[in-house]
Amino acid sequence: MGKKNKQKKRKKKNLPKELPEKFVERLTNIVGSSTLTRVMKTFVDKPTTFRVNTINAKKKEVGAALKEHNYKTKHVSWYDHAYILQNQTKRGLTELEIYKEGKIYIQSLASMVPPLILDPKPGEKVLDLTAAPGSKTSQIAALMEKRGELVANELNKVRFFRLQHNMQHLGVLDPQNDWEFIMRMEDGSALCKEYENYFDKILVDAPCSGEARFIDGYPKSYGYWSEHKIKQVAYRQHKLLMAAWFALKPGGVLVYSTCTMAPEENEARISKLVERFGEEVVVEKITLPQVESIPPSVEWKGKVYHKDVAKTFRMLPTTEVEGFYVARLRKVA
What we know:
Blueprint: H1 21-31, H2 33-40, E1 49-52, H3 59-68, E2 73-75, E3 82-85, H4 90-94, H5 97-100, E4 104-106, H6 113-118, E5 125-128, H7 135-143, E6 149-153, H8 157-169, E7 180-184, H9 188-192, E8 199-205, H10 227-247, E9 248-258, H11 267-277, E10 281-284, E11 293-294, E12 299-300, E13 303-304, E14 313-315, E15 324-331
Parallel strand pairs: 5-6, 5-8, 6-7, 8-9
Antiparallel strand pairs: 1-3, 1-4, 2-3, 9-15, 10-15, 11-14, 12-13, 14-15
Helix pairs in contact: 1-2
C-alpha cells in the first residue's frame, strides 16, 4: 500500500473561558486592589467611537449628516473631533455617505490620545514608525493640515496595503500629491538608520501584548497571553524605541504608546532609554485633566525604575475607553 498523504491535523489550543488567573494577579499589583473591581468591569465590548476627518470634512457638516439620519452621539470632552455613537450600530454608521467618503473614521478613543500628545505641527518632519492600519497616521496628517513631511512605515505586507487603502480613502494619499507623504514597508530599526537626527516628531505606537483590549468571555482576545509573550514583545519594543531615538533630531519629541497594562512593555522601556542616554532624554510630564488615569508603575517585581517614569501617563480603562500607556520624551542636544 502507498503511503498515506493525510496530513496530521494541528491540535487546536484549548483557550481559557475566563481571563487568565496570572493576568488578574498581575493586574491587581498594577492598579491596586481598591481599583481592581472597577477595572475588571471594563473588559467588555466598547461602544463605537469615531473621529471627524478634518482633511475631508468639517465638524458642522458631519453633525448635520448625523442629525439628518437620526444618529445620536456623545461628544468627547477632551477631543473636539471625537464622538461616541449612542443609538445606532457600527454597521449602520459605515453605510452612511460621510463614512464612505472618508469624512469620519471609526477609531477607539484611547488610540486618539498619542497623536494629541505628540502634537505635530504643519511644516514639521514626522515619522509614524509602526503605522498600520493608519488610525493615528491619518490623525497626524490632519493635525499637520497636510503640510510638511510625514513618513508612515509598516513592515507587514498585508497590513501595509491596508494602510495604503486607508490613506487613500481618508485623503492623506491623494492624486494631487500636494504634500510630502511617504509610505515605507521596512523593518523599523533599518528605516531609522536612514534618518539620523532627522525628525521633529516621532510616534512609536509599539506592537504589544494588547492586554487593554481583552474582552472577558471572548477567549480569542486573551487565550494566547503569557508572561513569555510579554518578554518577547518587550524586546521588540526596546529595539524600535532605540532606533527611533537615533532618528529624532535634537530638540525633537518622541511619543511612545501601547495598549497594554504590563510594566515590562511600558515604564520599563522608558526607564531603559533614560538609563542608556542619560541627560539626553527629558521625560515630559503628561497631563490630561479630563482623562482618568492611574499612577505609573515606578517599580515592578523588585526592579526600581528611573524616577522620571512617574511623569508618564496611564489611562484608566473604563467601559468607554481602553487602558493605554503614553510617554512623551524630548531629545536634548
